[in-house]
Automatic annotation (TrEMBL):
CDD domains: CE4_SmPgdA_like
Database matches in Pfam families: Polysacc_deac_1
Keywords for this protein: Membrane, Transmembrane, Transmembrane helix
Transmembrane regions listed in the UniProt entry: 12-32
Segments for region (Disordered): 43-73
Entry keyword Transmembrane helix: yes
Compositional bias (Basic and acidic residues): 43-64
Protein name according to UniProt: Polysaccharide deacetylase
Alphabetical list of SUPFAM superfamilies matching this protein: Glycoside hydrolase/deacetylase (SSF88713)
Coiled coil: none
Domain NodB homology: 76-259
Statement: the UniProt record of this protein carries the keyword Transmembrane helix: yes
InterPro entries, alphabetized: Glyco_hydro/deAcase_b/a-brl, NODB_dom, Polysacc_deacetylase_ArnD
């Protein structure tokens, strides 16, 4: 069959229109699907490395949720705080904490930190996840609170910890507590200016005066436990080492988590009730 010239023209036109129609349809479909995938990605911004930031934001929200309005952690949390080290007993305290899978906070004295024989255990404490804050150089009440050496001594002790461990702590504990030592606003202003934070405690175990009486230390701590968040004052003493497994057992049975101080999660806890510290 022979097609007329007119017929050939009509077929050519039809094929051409079909082609244009298909191309247009494809282009429309392509732009719609691209638009959809862009809107799905909205809110999931990419950072400079191309990693999605959304999980990070979620993490942050969960982290914030764990804190109460006063900055204290949610739930039952006990902070064990060991003063006056490092000492000949530091290694044994670390052994018990490791065995019990418990983290703690240490407040160490500068003159003890200068003892080269103790420094391996100071490093070990950091390696095993504990926090080390300062507890002055001399522990001398007159020097610290009468002669104005509180801030200089704390700075020096914190610097020693920094040099030995490579951490950058800002928390200290006042020898004998912040009351009455830090009652003057002036000394507290100096502490704030130096960027130093001060922690007292919620439970005084009185362990230092209970030589050979670990049971009484445990009793004092049990009697003192009334809140969801407790900060226990103990020292690197032989009787405290003896009492430690029982103290840990008590809090585990009561459903407490063992908190370790972190600068980013600081909440104020000082007898002067100064929210800046
Ligand atoms: Zn002390």
């Amino acid at each position: 069959m022979k097609l007329s010239r007119n017929n050939k023209k009509r077929i050519f036109k039809t094929v051409l229109s079909l082609g244009i129609l298909l191309t247009t349809a494809f282009l429309v479909y392509f732009s719609i699907s691209k638009f959809n995938s862009t809107s799905a990605k909205e809110g999931v911004k990419e950072n400079s490395e191309g990693a999605l930031e959304q999980p990070k934001e979620k993490e942050k929200i969960e982290h914030e949720k764990k804190k109460k309005p006063d900055g204290k952690p949610e739930g039952k949390v006990v902070y064990l705080t060991f003063d006056d080290g490092p000492s000949t007993l530091t290694g044994q305290f670390l052994d018990v904490l490791k065995e019990q899978k418990v983290k703690a906070t240490f407040f160490m004295i500068g003159k003890n930190l200068q003892n080269a024989g103790f420094q391996e255990n100071v490093k070990r404490a950091i390696k095993e996840g504990h926090y080390i804050g300062g507890h002055s150089m001399t522990h001398d009440s007159k020097r610290l609170y009468t002669d104005g050496q509180f801030v200089p001594e704390m700075k020096e002790a914190l610097e020693l910890i920094r040099n030995i461990t490579g951490t950058n702590p800002t928390l200290v504990r006042s020898p004998y507590g912040s009351a009455p030592g830090l009652k003057d606003q002036q000394i507290r202003d100096q502490i704030v200016e130096a960027g130093i934070k001060v922690w007292d405690w919620t439970i005084d175990s009185r362990d230092w005066e209970l030589k050979d009486n670990p049971n009484q230390i445990v009793e004092n701590i049990k009697k003192g436990t009334t809140d969801d968040v407790e900060v226990i004052l103990v020292h690197e003493k032989p009787q405290t080492l003896q009492a430690l497994p029982e103290i840990i057992k008590y809090y585990k049975e009561k459903g407490y988590e063992f908190g370790v101080y972190q600068d980013v999660d600081h909440f104020h806890l000082n007898f002067q009730k100064d929210a800046r510290l």
